[in-house]
Write a structure and sequence with these properties.
This protein is of the alpha/beta class. About 30% of the residues lie in helices and about 25% in strands. The strands form two sheets. It has a seven-stranded mixed β-sheet with strand order 5-4-3-6-7-8-9. A two-stranded antiparallel ribbon has the order 1-2. The longest helix has 13 residues. It is globular and about 50 Å long. It binds S-adenosyl-L-homocysteine (SAH).
Length: about 240
């Protein structure tokens, strides 16, 4: 696909991708295509999610010396003992979030900012919380350079959410939690969706939570086994 065709498709599918991002489109294009083909093979079908992953340059979110591994289907270290999540799991989580272009999304665990870029491409606005100030600042710089203007970066304990800008249509938790943090459930809109890995420090079940009824109840669907770094903070592993 050439750039003109790509721009048309971005418009047609109502993606919120800044034009600066397209400057990277030719870099490592074949590797990125192969990554997306693999994600499709594993069962992800959502066209907007797949197109976004075809465009966002994962190689600028990983340390320079690991660039050659950026499109392998593996998590990679990003410093501070944290990792950028595996591409398939990011695609799978995002598909399950069912994000529309008018949605406001809360993300817990900015990390490298790669998943933040994907969420911001699909949604109206993203509020992203990160407990490490250093990681948050790095991600902010990266995403500003890429031209994203619909992201609010917050340094703080994401297990408590961010009530100031709530309620959210969607909540994406990218760190393992012992339970569903009550504040996150409270800050989710009725009929809103949250995707969160729930379990112990070594293994979790990726869970899809749909808030129902008068807002006190929720439906929980178990998606698959997974392994994330742990959620710190008051409602995490502290
Ligand atoms: N999706 C990210 C990776 C997230 S790794 C990416 O694509 O790069 C999980 C992140 O959650 C780490 O950066 C970690 O510092 C952060 N984290 C852990 N506990 C947190 C908390 N209570 N609040 C906010 N961020 C937290």
């Amino acid at each position: 696909m050439d750039i003109t065709e790509l721009k048309k498709l971005i418009q047609k599918t109502k993606l919120n991708i800044p034009s600066q991002v397209l400057k990277y489109y030719e870099e490592m294009k074949e590797e990125r295509e192969a990554m997306v083909e693999n994600i499709e093979k594993k069962g992800v079908k959502d066209k907007r999610v797949l197109l976004t992953m075809r465009i966002i340059p994962r190689h600028i979110f990983v340390p320079e010396e690991l660039k050659y591994l950026a499109y392998e289907d593996n998590p990679l270290p990003i410093g501070k003992e944290q990792t950028i999540s595996q591409p398939f799991i990011i695609a799978f989580m995002t598909e399950n979030l069912e994000i529309r272009e008018n949605h406001n999304v809360l993300e817990i665990g900015t990390g490298s900012g790669y998943h933040t870029a994907i969420l911001a491409s699909l949604a109206n606005k993203v509020v992203t919380l990160e407990i490490s100030e250093e990681l948050s600042l790095q991600a902010k710089k990266r995403l500003k350079n890429l031209g994203f203007e619909n992201i609010e970066f917050v340094v703080g304990d994401g297990s408590e959410g961010f009530p100031e800008l709530s309620p959210y249509d969607r909540i994406c938790v990218s760190a393992a939690s012992p339970d569903i943090p009550i504040p996150l459930l409270e800050q989710l809109k009725i009929e809103g969706i949250m995707v969160i890995p729930v379990g112990n420090e070594n293994e979790q079940i990726l869970s899809k939570i749909i808030k129902v009824g008068n807002g006190k109840g929720f439906i929980k669907k178990e998606l698959c086994g997974c392994r994330f770094v742990k959620l710190k903070g008051k409602f995490g592993f502290s």
